Amino acid sequence: MKQDNLKLAQKGIDDALDTIDSLEKTIKETPLIKDILKDRFYILSKKVDEIEDILKNEGIL
Prior knowledge:
The protein has helices spanning 3-29, 34-57. With 61 residues, the protein is mostly helical.
């Protein structure tokens, strides 16, 4: 795996984890607002897709 792609994948993983943390905080602190929850899951899904693409391009998946 190229070093740049490894760094990009790591950043994507870190961003996804931050999104999960933010989602957990939102769920705990506010009533479940459907639109906010849906938006957070959409962001998380996009980040996971980006990581998957990087790993596929490198032949890991």
